[in-house]
Each structure stands twice: as C-alpha cells, then as structure tokens.
Amino acid sequence: MRYEAPDTIDAAIAILAAEDGIARVLAGGTDLLVQIRSDMIEPDLVVDIKNINSMRSITPENGGYRIGGAVSCAEMGEHADLCAQWPGVVEAAELIGSTQVQGRATMTGNLCNCGPAADSVPAMVAAEAIATIVGPNGRRDIPVEDMPVAPGKSSLTKGEIVESVFLPARPERSGDAYLRFIPRTEMDIAVVGVGISLTLDGHGTCTHARVGLGAVAATVLLVDDAAKALIGTRVDDAALDKLAAATSAACKPINDKRGTIEFRTKVAGVLAQRVAKIALDRAGK
Amino acid sequence: MTHSSDFNAEKASNLKVIGTRPARPDGVDKVTGRARFGADMNLPGQLVGRILRSPHPHAIIKSIDTSAAEALDGVKAVVTRDDFAENPDNHAVLCNVMAREKALYEGHTVAAVAASTATIARKALKLINVDYEPLPHVTDVDAAMQPDAPVLHDTIFTSGVDPVPTIPSNIVARCEFGHGDVEAGFAKADIIVERELKTAATHQGYIEPHACVASVSTDGMSELWCCTQGHFDDRKICAALLGIDVSRLRVTASEIGGGFGGKTTVFIEPVALALSRKAGRPVKIVMSREEVFKASGPTASTSMRVKIGVTNDGRMTACDGEFRLQGGAFEGSPFDSAAMTAFACYDLENVKSVAFDVVVNRPKGAAYRAPGAPMSVYGVESVVDEVALKIGMDPIEFRLKNAVRDGSQSSYGPKFGPNGLVETLEAAKAHPQYKTPLGPNQGRGIASGFWFNYGGETCSNLNINADGTVTLAVGTPDIGGSRASMCMMAAEELGIPYDSVRATVVDTGALGFNEGSYGSRVTYASGLAIINAAQQAITEMCKRASMMWDIPADAVTWEDGYAKPSGANAGEFEPMSLAEIAAIAANTGGPIAGHREHNADSAGISFGTHIVDTEVDPETGRVDVLRYTVIQDAGKAIHPDYVEGQFQGGAVQGIGWALNEEYIYGDDGKLQNAGFLDYRVPVASDLPMIDTVIVEVPNPGHPYGVRGVGETGIVPPLAAVANSVSAAAGVRLSELPMSPPRVLKAMDDAKQAAE
Ligand SMILES: Cc1cc2nc3c(=O)[nH]c(=O)nc-3n(C[C@H](O)[C@H](O)[C@H](O)COP(=O)(O)OP(=O)(O)OC[C@H]3O[C@@H](n4cnc5c(N)ncnc54)[C@H](O)[C@@H]3O)c2cc1C
Predict the structure, then answer these.
(1) Cβ distance A257 to B673 under 8 Å?
(2) Which residue from A22, A68, B78, B221 has the highest number of Cβ atoms inside 10 Å of its Cβ?
(3) Under a CB-based contact definition with an 8 Å cutoff, are residues B8 and B703 in contact?
(4) In this predicted model, what pLDDT tens digit does every residue of A160-208 receive, in sequence order?
C-alpha cells in the first residue's frame, strides 16, 4: 500500500487519477483505518488530505460558512460563529464518536463514507448543505443528499475529492437541531437520526422547513412530507403529530442487530417531534 | 508447625494495616504504560502467528491442504489437527484449541501459520485449502434440546437421567438439587407465580485480547508468556496437549487487562507452542477483538422456568425451577452451579432445582464471574419480586422473612454457617436510596444473590531481605489488586509498614502448583498462605533472636515488628526489630523465609443485595440507570478500595448484561456483532457512580474473617435491574437484554392489551 500526503488539491487529484488499483482519500481516517484494519478493504493507494492548507479552514462566505474537507469536527465545535448559525449541524458533528475521535474525524469524511447512519448527514441535509467537488474534470457542486447512492457507495467518480461543504446563509428566526437514538449515551451508532431546520415568520408561523432522516433506509433521506407537516403551522401539537406520522411513513428500515423495523419506524417519529421542538426553540431566540 | 485458619476475634479487632487504603503497587506502571501486558513481550527472532478459522457454524472437515501456504516465502510453520495427538483426558479442550473431525462453530480454529511478517501470515492463511462439508446447525438452547435438532456429537448420551438414553443428543447432563416435597408445598400456597425467562449469552468483555509468546528450544525446553488468570493451569494443560514434561515448560503470567473468568483456560497458547516447536523460533499470537468474540469463551445463554408459591403473609412454601444452559460446542456449561445458587438465598422447606447442560454451535463457553448464578438468580429474583408485589409486601421485608441465616439448610445441600444475607438486607432497608421518592417513569428494583467462594491449591513464599524489607512470591495472577492485599497481610502479621513489602507474581518454575485466580479465592487462599508464611518466618526470627540472647526459642515473642523476651523470667534484652534480625541473618543460620502450601477449604460463602433505580423513556424504551447501590458481605475488607471496586465492577457488568449486551446470531449461525460497536458494554457516561456498602460478617474459617468478594457482585444485578425496569415500564420483562426495542414492544403490547 502506497501512502501519499500532497500539499495541494491538484496534486492529490493527479495522484488519485493516475492510480489503477484501489485508491482512497484519507481525512481523519476514523472510518478508513478501521476498514483497513478489519480487512474490509485493501487499498493500493491512500492519499492523505490533511497537508492541504486550503482544505483546513472554516471561512465565511455570502453570509454562510465554507468548511474545508479536512476540518475536524472538534474544530467546528470551537468555531463560535458557526455554532451560533448552525447549532444543529455542529451538534451532529460533535456526536461522532468521542472527544478523541472528533479530534480526527471530519464531517466530509462522514459524508463521503456514505454510511446510512452517519450522524452529521441528516443535519447537513436539513441545512441544505452543498458539497463542492474537485476532480480531473474540474469543479462541481451537489446537494449533500445526492452524495450517497448506496450504503458505503458515493456518487464521486475516479479522482474526485470533496474540497469543502458549504452551509448557506439563513434568514432571521431560523433554528436547526439534530438528535439520534442510541441505546447507550455515546460511542454508539445511530438506530435513527433526525435533523430539522426551520424558519419562522414574525408571527411564529413556519415558512420553511427541511427534515433529514438517517439510519432508516439505505441512504440518508430528505423527507418533504415531513417538512410540509410543519410549513404553514405554528409547530403546534397537531403539526407535530403530522410530522411524526410523515417521518415514520418515510422510513424504509430493515430488521437487524441494531433494531427492528417496528422500533425504528416508531422512534423516527418520536425523535422528529423532539428535534422540531428544539429547532423551534432556537428559531424563537 | 501447625497453621490455624480459625477466625481470631481479638486479632481481627486490632488490625493496623488491614482496612486501610494504601496506593496500589502496580498503579504507576499501569497508568504510564510501563506495565507489560500479554502483547508487550517480544523475543529475538520472533514470528507472527495467525489462525485460520472456520467460516461455517457446523461442518465436517474433509481435508486440509497446507502445501501452498508452506511453500510461501517467509512461512516458517503451519499446524493443523495433525500436529496434536488425541488426548482423551483433555478431549474437549484439545478439540476446541484445534478442530478435529468437525468445525463446531463459526470461528473454530482449523489451522495456524507462523511467518516472518503479519502480511505474509495473512497471505498464507488464504492459501490453506480446507474442504468443508457444511452440516445443519443450531445455536439456540431450546432448539438444541428438541429431538429433531442437528446433533453436534454422536458421543453424548444424557447423563443424570434414568435410564440413560440410547440415542445421542445435545443434552449432556441433567442435575437436580433440593429437598422436601414441592407439590405438597405448592398445595399450601395462597399464591403461585410461574414464569418462563431467558437470558442472552454475554462475553466477559475484558479490554485486553488474549496474547502470548511461545518459545520451544531444540532440546524441548519451553517458555510461554501469556495473559492469564492461571499460569500453573496453563502449564498443566499445554504440557498435556503437546506431550511436554511439566518440568520443561515454564509459564510466566503477564499483567492482565481483565479476565473475569474468561482467562482461566487456553485458546491460542497451545497453538503458539506447536508453531514454535515446528518453526524452531519464538512465535507470538495476539487475538483481534473479532477473534476474542468469536473464539474465546463467552458465558451461557439460558432459558428457564421458575415457580414459587407463597402464603398471603409472605412465607415461601415451595420453589421449583428448571434451568437450561448452553455452554457452546462442548460440555461444561455452569448448569450445576446455576441450579445450586438459584434458591440459595432462601430458607425453604420444599425446593427443587433441575438444570441441563446443552451443546450448540457456538464457541466453547468459559467461566464468567459466579458462573451460572447471575442467570438462575435473575429468574428466581424476578419471580420473588412478582410474588412480593402480588401479596403487597415490601420486597426487602419479603426477603427478610424468608432469608437463610446461620444454621439454615441450604437449597443445594449443606447447612449454612454464619453469613451476612440478613445484614445486607437490613443495610438496604436503611440505605438513603431506598427511601428516596421516585418520579414518573421511574422504578426501583431489589435483588439478592449468593456465591459459594472457593479456596483450593495454593503455594506462596515470603522472604525476609537483609535490609529489613520483605518480598512475597505469589502464584496467583493479580487480577483485582491482590499484590496490594498480600503486602498488607504480610505487613500486618510482621508488624512492619506496608511500604516495606513487595509482592511478585512469579513464574511456574518458582513455586509449587497454584490454581488460578478464580472462584473469588485469591485474597482468601493466597492471602492465608501469606499469613501462614509470615507466621513461619516470625517463628524463625524469634529463634534467631533467642540464639543471640541465648535463651530458649519459646521464651521469645513477636510484637509489632520486634522480637521480645516473653517476660521477666526470660531475661532482660533490648527488643530486636525485623530489620536488625535480618541484617545479621548470615551469622545466625542464613536467609530467613516463610513458606506455605495448602489446599484451602474454609472459604466463606457470600451474599449481596442490590438496589437500583431506573427511568424508562416511554416513547423509545430506552433505560437510564439513575442510582445504584451494592451491599455485600466481605467478611473482612483487606483493602476496602479494591473490595468496592469488585462490587462496582460486578454491578456494571450486570447492568450491561441486563440492558444491552448479547451475542446475536443470524439464521446462518454466524455471530453478527463481534465487536464493541454492536456488542454494547456500558460506557462510563451510561452509569451513575455505583454506591457501595461493605458488610462484614466474619468468615469463621479465616483469622481476619475474610470472604471472597470477586463474584457475588455480579449475581444480583440482572434481577435487580429487571425488577427496576419492570416497575418503571409498568410491565414485567422476562427476557434479557432489556434493549430498547424489547422494552418498547413490551410496553406497547401491554398498552394494547389494556385497551
Ligand atoms: C470509535 C468510533 C466512533 C465513531 N462514532 C461515530 C458516530 O457516533 N457517528 C458517526 O456518524 N460516525 C461515527 N464513527 C465513524 C467516523 O468517525 C465518521 O464517519 C467520521 O466522520 C469519518 O471522518 P474521517 O475524516 O475520519 O473519514 P475517513 O475515515 O478519513 O474517510 C471516510 C471515507 O470517506 C472518504 N473521504 C474522506 N474525505 C474525503 C474527501 N474529502 N473527498 C472524498 N472522499 C473522502 C475516504 O476515502 C473514506 O472512504 C465512529 C468511528 C469510530 C472509530
């Protein structure tokens, strides 16, 4: 196995594009190294992106924030303005593993790994985040929900790297939140994860909402029907009941060692209600 | 000289070192990383050993072709079943260490290689060609007992039943304990509750995976370094499996990162020795976590039926239980101790306890703290909770009314001596936790539990050094702080400071046979040997002083670290300290030492009672442990920190067992969660501080009153947590683990049934 750590993204793309065997980008390595050590994959080439300076910063842009692909989750948590604007996304990133894992893990790695239960992804989906991709054929932007195509499989093509994730500006009276269900309190994988972002008008009526749903289907879902249950309401009990029903209805889970279909479907609705209440509270502040 | 193990009340009430909390001697090395665990040993020229494991849960191994692997550059040895001779005395261990005719579980060792690098070893494994003929499998204990179940061994004819069956089955044995007439007892009952319950198999979950380095020289002298709870036991079994003289195999125990019973047997050690013998080089094998889960020994899963009858005023009239335990692919589940401990807390006129040992296509089970007891006690204490609720009696009062006391007839045979069950119950009743009001969705659970405790074969040395310090040579690996306890007991007897004494766990060449560190026996049995060895050294030191003073040896006594003339008649001499006697030992007869070997047989039984408060999320079934108190009889706590640590550890492992830990098998007979991500032990943030109360009812068979404390702590928690969660959820749960999907379903089903 060859290990490369170039200091420009162009060099990284060139090295990746030239490899005939199995090539992998290494960000924090908290997924990749585990997969290598457990013999799940045997890459011929690993390209570390942590030496690429342009990918290591969080920069304000058009009222939003651009988060470099090699920024760790812990660095996100230390960025006060980012936390103030997108608390739900940051809290999702800070649920990943433990303090030690967050010192290494990146939100982009979480996205590119394409696990259905990835914690930061439903929150990013709710936030309308955009992934900026650079590759041998240039640059392109995609909504984050278009990244995973199947468990462990992304829509990236050979030689492509996610350079950054962009979180857009947001109107006043907006709030977002993320919660996951795990049997324990930490160091666990989501059995269900829900991210919600919403915006209120001056009268407290919800004008915009997005609901991201994780761990209940092959990929993270954007649930329009759940968002519709909130839009035009004051996010009252009736709206929350509709939200729960729409969220549960969107679930396409499997029975596995982590939970039954019945359990996941029900808990998705329960979590959606709890998340909406937190987002509502944040939007009102 | 004669050694007394009788309780000495005067001594026990005048202890100076015992009962204090000095810093542990192994602490600094452990927190700085200097301590050497199993995988930390390396020898010059060492090879990497790797194991090929069966992908099938049950298959005939028709042939194994190792030629391509042997031809690979860098491969120095390959071993299979052909490298181990049949061994009738140790058949099950042999077959488990290296599969013979059949692979009996997914992960069963089929071959092993030793190569110069890990990469080559991995490649070599892929080149070994095994021709399997897969067979139908069974992993569930109840399914394995059915007449049409696939049979693992055609040599098993259920023992303990009359007549002995003529066709083989998976039921190895049946045992029965009890007395009285349960039918007559049930006839006297006002209320009878009968339940079927289940528990999942769990793993001891030690942080350190099994690891060893073996080195066999061309003349057959062999060395083995490994993480183990019993290196003398390892020597015995490895020597037998490899046909080596015991005298030619020296085993050294490394520091150990947890064992809990799971490191009382061998898995990789004989394989490493066989590889080293073949390769002529040292071989190191370190298990991965996946291998630990799939191929070391978890505990049994169980299914059981418990029936208890009581009068309206809370007297138990009859208890009847049937306990079915699978112990993996070979005989030896702890079915008998499950049956014996099940009703041990209760003074009963009529009791019957039957258990079955069953084999299934799972890894061979190993001991796990109080083997068998947590499960059967879970069943019994769940039903006890239910009957107490039904008759409207406080669960502690109910237990007090039926508890065994000094002189009670035990449910499994012997009469009990002095014991602390009632004291733990009284302490529970008086504990602030028991009086704290509960909020909505919260529940409180109580359970008591029993463990026998063990003594066994033990041999220890105590050496007085010329500078007045003392070194101890102990043969039981330190798995719970025993080096500190040994030093404290030696210091107490000799009358010198704790800091002057150091203990080493020595290799098998240095002492006579020692059984391993299990059965809660170390502080009791090795400790008693150290106490006796100290007494022997004291006798010798008094003799040396008497020589100096030229008076009879029996005119000298030992007091607080000094030899003194026993009275005015003996003469007027300045007392001599241990250090002064040691300094001139060369002139008075040479080195001074004490030694003791014994088969300790006066271990004290132990009881405990746990209180746990939980809260259940009614919408998700998730359980939070809010508060937990362990109350247990320690007889006498030598080092209270360690005793509390044992209590807390038992409770935490029990909480894991009760809430989330389980071996999950697919229909394909394969383990689905061979890692800590999906095998969910509690993490620190899941737990409240576990409160402890040490009760001390002296063991009459120990001079200070010591009882073992290592195992009883895991006996009550399964039941205590189940009783608490059942109260919080408003529905009786009868299957462990009480994972959120199971709890939510039980609550939803109960709601539907009520509607
Ligand atoms: C102990 C532990 C606990 C964990 N707990 C959680 C948890 O609670 N929740 C959770 O969601 N995850 C968890 N994880 C998984 C993991 O930490 C996260 O998915 C993390 O966000 C991955 O980020 P990384 O930077 O380490 O990714 P890496 O491992 O470096 O990469 C992951 C994948 O993405 C690809 N990749 C990475 N960066 C890029 C890029 N810029 N462009 C293209 N491809 C890229 C890699 O090639 C690889 O395939 C845990 C892992 C561990 C070891």
Answers:
(1) yes
(2) B78
(3) yes
(4) 999 999 999 999 999 999 999 999 999 999 999 999 999 999 999 999 9
CA distance B452 to B345: 11
B660 interfacial to chain A (CB closer than 8 Å) = yes
Closest chain B residue to A263, measured at CA = B741
CA–CA dist B296, B307 (Å, integer):
34
Q: In the structure encoding, which two tokens stand for residue A201, read together?
A: 């008008």
Sheet holding B690-695, edge to edge: B442-451, B606-616, B623-633, B690-695
The response to whether residue A193 sits with its C-beta less than 6 Å from ligand 1 reads no
> Where does the pLDDT of residue B728 fall: very low under 50, low under 70, confident under 90, or very high at 90 and above?
very high
* Extended beta strands in B258-338, E state: 283-286, 301-310, 316-326
Pocket test for ligand 1, best of A24, A110, A161, A258 (most atoms within 8 A of CB): A110
What does the block give as tokens for B369? 């703290």
Is the confidence at residue B465, as pLDDT, over 60? yes
Q: Which helix (H) or strand (E) holds B494?
A: helix B482-494
Confidence at B755, pLDDT banded by 50, 70, 90: confident
Annotated domain spans of chain A: 2-115+130-167, 174-283
Task: Please work out whether the CB of residue A110 comes within 6 Å of at least one atom of ligand 1.
Answer: yes
Minimal-distance CA residue to ligand 1 atom 11: A118
**B685 touches A at CB < 8 Å:** yes
- A263/B673 CB distance under 8 A: no
Using a CB–CB cut-off of 8 Å, the residues of A that contact B are: 38-39, 181, 183-189, 191, 256-260, 262-263, 266-267, 270
Share of chain B above pLDDT 90, in %: 98
From residue A126, give the alpha-carbon distance in Å to each of A86, A92, A149, A222, B649: 11, 11, 18, 7, 42
- Is CATH 3.30.390.50 what the domain over A174-283 is classified as, yes or no? yes
Which residue in B has a C-alpha nearest to residue A42's C-alpha?
B119
E-state strands within chain A: 2-4, 23-26, 45-48, 58-61, 64-68, 130-135, 138-143, 148-150, 153-154, 161-167, 174-181, 192-200, 206-214, 221-222
Tell whether ligand 1 has an atom less than 6 A from the beta carbon of residue A91: no
Helices (H), B508-639: 527-549, 578-583, 585-588
Q: Is A74 in the pocket of ligand 1 (CB under 6 A)?
A: no
Domains and CATH numbers, chain B: 9-35+456-588 (3.30.365.10)
